[in-house]
Write a structure and sequence with these properties.
Strand content of chain B: under 5%
Order of helices and strands of chain B: HHHH
Number of domains of chain B: 1
Shape of chain A: rod-shaped
Radius of gyration of chain B: 34 Å
Strand order of the largest sheet of chain A: 1-2-7-5-6
Shape of chain B: rod-shaped
Helix content of chain A: 55-70%
Structural class of chain B: mainly alpha
Strand content of chain A: 5-15%
Oligomer: heterodimer
Chain lengths: 363, 137
């Protein structure tokens, strides 16, 4: 009996080793770990078909293992692993697409809101500008305290100021006529300007109050001439667009009561238009052609005292017309509206200029 | 007998189809540097499966060779999907940046509108006062 014990033990060991399952492929453990991961758990709900396919492949791998077909279990395990990866990526893509759709909606809504706000801003800005201008006109039209006689020096300064104001008034009235050619009140105002100019050449007391009142009247006429267009489309913003266009083209435009203004300095060369100014005028003529709604007023300013009109503005108008500008008018302001006091050094270079005014047809 | 032959032919055809599709997908992905970057591991696994399938087929084991080609297709498809998901996520990030910029613009535009409303109200009030003064004798 004692001799047969080791033999029995050996037989038992041999029997046990003969019945043991083959070693489980490592890939199957990896598949199990992957399936238990959070990404696959999430994919189960957001990519159920892909998940089910991966689970089926895992089941087939298990079946192959149970059938002792280890190579097939290995291959199917790899397939199951790839399929679980596909399920998680599909879930990732589904989430990304859902968020993309949301983001697109949000972008659309924000774009619409921005467009709405910009349009509202344009309208409000135009309305505010119109109200401000009307308030300015009303303020200017308020009766002024009558100017009392002054000392000779003061009287001289007052006379120069009155000349400048009369010139400004005339240019505003011309602008009003360019916007609305048939405006009836303008003829009387033009006569009044002429009358004041003559009076300023005499020794009579300076009609400064009359000059100021004339300027207010001309500004009011220009505002009234613009009103129908401004009311028809308050948010048009055409002057803003023109100002931006001229700025981009380096014309250094600015705005005043008349509209958008470009000043050309050193316009004279041997009594004629300088070549540089001519080239710029050709460019400005093309701008005027592209914006036919803006009539163009050309004003020449001379730095020389009591200089006569040398037809510089008319020459400029011809160039503008040649480049395609439709409605244009030339005016000479003489030396009545200097930019800097004439007695200052270098004043002539700054005061002698040609103003190209794109008269705003609306607000 | 004939049914067995048809099934065997179908299996062979399916495996060949899997190899062709896997190869096609991998070739398309190889042309996209971004895809190669985001799915490098699974692309490598697909290529590895194809290489092993070749070895099995060369040794006459067509059944397991076909299974490995199916595995290669699974990895290749996963790589393709990874590329698509990465593209969608990139697109989403760009769109979110744009939307944030738009939100800032809307915020500023809103503030500007409010300022202009106030400016308009001031102008209206100024005009009303001036007109009332005009009416008074």
């Amino acid at each position: 009996m004692s001799r047969s014990l080791p033999l029995l033990a050996l037989l038992a060991l041999l029997g046990a080793s003969g019945c043991a399952a083959p070693a489980r492929p490592q890939i199957m453990a990896e598949v199990e770990r992957t399936r238990a991961g959070q990404a696959v758990i999430d994919a189960r709900t957001s990519a159920p078909q892909a998940y089910a396919r991966a689970a089926l492949l895992e089941k087939r791998a298990e079946q192959a293992y149970s059938d002792n077909d280890l190579p097939a279990a290995q291959i199917l395990g790899e397939q199951a692993l790839a399929a679980y990866l596909r399920a998680t990526v599909e879930a990732r893509q589904t989430r990304a697409e859902a968020r993309l759709a949301e983001a697109r909606l949000s972008e659309k809504a924000q774009s619409q809101r921005l467009a709405q706000l910009e349009s509202e801003q344009q309208r409000l800005s135009a309305e505010a500008a119109d109200l401000e201008l009307r308030a300015k006109v009303a303020r200017d039209a308020e009766p002024l305290a009558k100017s009392e006689p002054a000392s000779p020096e003061r009287e001289k300064a007052r006379r120069e100021a009155a000349r400048a104001i009369v010139t400004q008034a005339s240019l505003l009235c011309v602008s009003a006529r360019l916007v609305e050619p048939g405006r009836s009140a303008l003829a009387a105002l033009t006569s009044k300007a002429e009358e004041l100019r003559k009076k300023l050449d005499t020794a009579a007391p300076t009609p400064i109050d009359d000059a100021t009142a004339l300027r207010s009247d001309c500004l009011r006429e220009l505002t009234l001439a613009r009103r129908p267009r401004a009311q028809a489309n308050p948010s048009r913003g055409e002057s803003d667009a023109l100002l931006a266009e001229l700025s981009r083209a380096d014309f250094l435009p600015f705005r005043d009561d008349r509209g958008v203004v470009v000043a050309l300095h050193a316009p004279r060369e041997g009594g004629k238009l300088a070549s540089k100014a001519s080239a710029k005028l050709a460019d400005l003529g093309r701008v005027a052609k592209a914006h036919p709604e803006f009539p163009v007023l050309v004003v020449s300013h001379d730095a020389r005292a009591s200089a006569k009109d040398d037809g510089l503005a008319s020459q400029a108008v011809e160039l503008l017309k040649a480049a395609g500008a439709a409605r244009t008018e030339a005016k000479s302001a003489g030396n009545t509206t200097p930019v800097v006091p004439p007695e200052r050094a270098g004043a002539a270079a700054r005061n002698e200029r040609l103003e190209i005014v794109f008269v705003s047809p609306g607000s | 007998m004939w049914l067995l032959a048809v099934t065997a032919a179908g299996v062979a055809l399916g495996a060949a189809d899997a190899r062709a599709r896997a190869t096609e997908i991998l070739a398309a992905l190889a042309k996209k540097p971004d895809a190669v970057r985001v799915a490098s591991a699974s692309i490598q696994k697909a290529n590895d499966a194809l290489r092993r399938a070749d070895q099995l087929r060369a040794s006459g084991d067509h059944k397991r060779g076909g299974m490995l080609e199916e595995t290669a297709l699974e990895w290749a498809s996963a790589s393709e999907q990874l590329d698509r998901a990465a593209q969608s996520e990139k697109q989403l990030a760009e769109l979110q940046t744009r939307t944030t910029e738009l939100e800032t613009k809307v915020f500023r535009a809103q503030a500007l509108v409010e300022q202009t409303v106030a400016r308009r109200a001031r102008a209206e009030e100024a005009l009303r006062k001036l007109e009332t003064k005009e009416v008074k004798p």
